[in-house]
Amino acid sequence: MAGLRSKGLLGELLAEFAGTMVLILFGVGVVAQVVAGELGDHDSIAWAWGLGVVLGVYISAAISGGHINPAVTFAFAVFGDFPWRKVLPYALAQTAGAFVAALLVRWNYSEVLAAADPGHTIKTQGVFSTLPGNGTLPVSDLGALRDQIIGTAILLFIVAALVDAKNKSAPAANMAPFVIGLLVVAIGMAWGTDAGYAINPARDFGPRLASFFTGYSTAFYDQYGDLYFWVPIVGPLVGGVIGLGLYKLLVGRFMPPEDPQPASPSTTAHLENA
Fold first, then answer.
1. Within-domain flag for 270
2. Taking Cα atoms as reference points, which of 142, 188, 225 lies closest to residue 45?
3. CB 192 within 8 A of CB 42
4. Secondary structure letter of residue 223 according to DSSP
5. What residues contact residue 15 under an 8 Å CB cut-off, 6+ apart?
6. Which helix (H) or strand (E) holds 38?
7. CB 29 within 8 A of CB 105
8. What is the domain count for the chain?
9. Containing domain of residue 67, as a range?
10. Residue 266 falls inside a structural domain
């Protein structure tokens, strides 16, 4: 029995690894293309990140719930909808997937990045990880922290509605990843200025670590020289709990009882993965 449980968890972790890797291949890849290759614009970035979410969740949802974001995993655990014993393994698998994907992007775009920024400075550091004000605008670290809390709260508030089995107007299980991807596109288009809308600790820390190991010596710092890597970790973890809590308080507790029906895979896996 223990062996079966272990094998089941291994499958979940590999699914989270693969799903997050796909997310970063498209997300960091498009930023490299826009920033270093000068092909595309902010809309390209917003759409590619959103599509990366769609594809990453489709890959992983049936096995692991398709969290591909430690803020999602942590928030559901806080409210008792996901087992705490899986939180750290999920977060490590997600971060590892993001790290490997970022290494692939770094390798593939090595010539273009070197031509655009031979010293691997703050100019192209934003390809891999976020910065306050995207490295150019006058946003402080605390302003970026505020932004990450709000942006991730929006994400979890709406994701909770989309995957709530009691919500009769939510999309069917096979459409939920697509709508969640559109949500990420919308967040990128509306909430991308102050901190680059990481809204996902693995999305930021994994590529940040990859860039540090491949020549970006200031990867953990912002344009002001302040230690910054903690902001897109702490902000999303706090914001996710706030967003999910607000959904449960304002909407979820008023939903009509769920009709008995077979469970469907969705981005929470939720709630029965004990």
1. no
2. 188
3. yes
4. T
5. 59, 60, 63, 64, 66
6. none
7. yes
8. 1
9. 2-115+130-251
10. no
